[in-house]
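Risk mitigation, structural track. In case the binding assays with flavin mononucleotide fail to produce interpretable data, a predicted complex structure has been prepared as a fallback.
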Amino acid sequence: MPIFTPFTFSNLTLRNRIVMSPMCMNSSDDSGTVQEFHRIHYGTRAYGGAGLILLEATAVEGAGRITNRDLGIWNEQQAEGLASLVKTIHEGGAKAGVQLAHAGRKCTVDYEQSVAPSSFHFSADYRTPEELTQDGIDRCIEQFKQAARRAYAAEFDAIEIHAAHGYLIHEFLSPLSNRRTDQYNGSTDNRLRFLREIIQAVRQVWPAEKPLLVRLSASDYLPGGLNIDETIRLVNGIKADVDLFDISSGGLLPTPIEETTGYQVDFAAAIRQKAQVPVMAVGLITTREQSEKIVADGQADLVALGRELLRNPYWPIIFDAQRNAQSHLIPKPYRRAFAEAYPK
Ligand SMILES: Cc1cc2nc3c(=O)[nH]c(=O)nc-3n(C[C@H](O)[C@H](O)[C@H](O)COP(=O)(O)O)c2cc1C
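Fallback model:
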């Protein structure tokens, strides 16, 4: 039962290999603080048995929000709420990670100035962003560092840097959105520079014994954009400072993606094999058999579930109970229900 076996990275051990994928809930208010909704929502998935709960994209500055109902981590009031949310998740037996994010040109908060590596919009429905100056780049890097410092103080177990889905960092990584003429473009290494500098800044305040994850889009699904070979080069350029890569795809430009069962798993498997790094697979992983095969076949170390956990927060304990109705993953007050459902 590989998905129900523990997984250790850095000094952190997860009780199993099931991760709640980060999902924006648009349920805060303009303050970006944790609401009652978040405690119930994330707490339920923790009691439901996930090993690691990755919080939704949490903005490192006001202009880094996708909408003005995103969570934020750019001030101490937000950090206080997040610290109490970490306690709730721990109470449910899961580890807690926060996804540090900057929306870049996909910021839709009307009173914020959206920024990007280059002044090109995502689509006609979005504003044209301001091109970041070197000072602006330095400021963003500092915001990621300060966010990581707050995440540490809030006792998060893991940080994931959101470098996928067409948001600010991805906009630097992809040749389709990065048209700069300075040291942040011109080669793979230069497009990687912004992410590398963020990782280095984060590492100054986020100790080596705590895992640092990076989420990447392995393909832009467009000619001239990121593809799996280029993504492997990117991974090789930062893997010394990253504990695990979370492999997603798309989002840079409004190109439709054909979502089939496990549609991104091959990307994760290729990166795991060719760059020799731990990876998490995500994307229409919905059944126990499928997740177990992904881990057992060595395609990924962890599996992340998104929409499936929105439908069914108890997915991990239900499937674990099918093999052992006395499983310790099941919260004690719930065990009678499972013993009755799955008698010996
Ligand atoms: C409602 C919703 C919100 C999402 N928000 C985020 C997000 O904040 N950060 C992120 O990296 N991915 C986000 N995603 C993508 C998911 O993390 C996941 O990668 C994707 O849904 C595919 O996995 P699934 O098929 O298990 O849902 C979101 C997806 C959904 C459905």
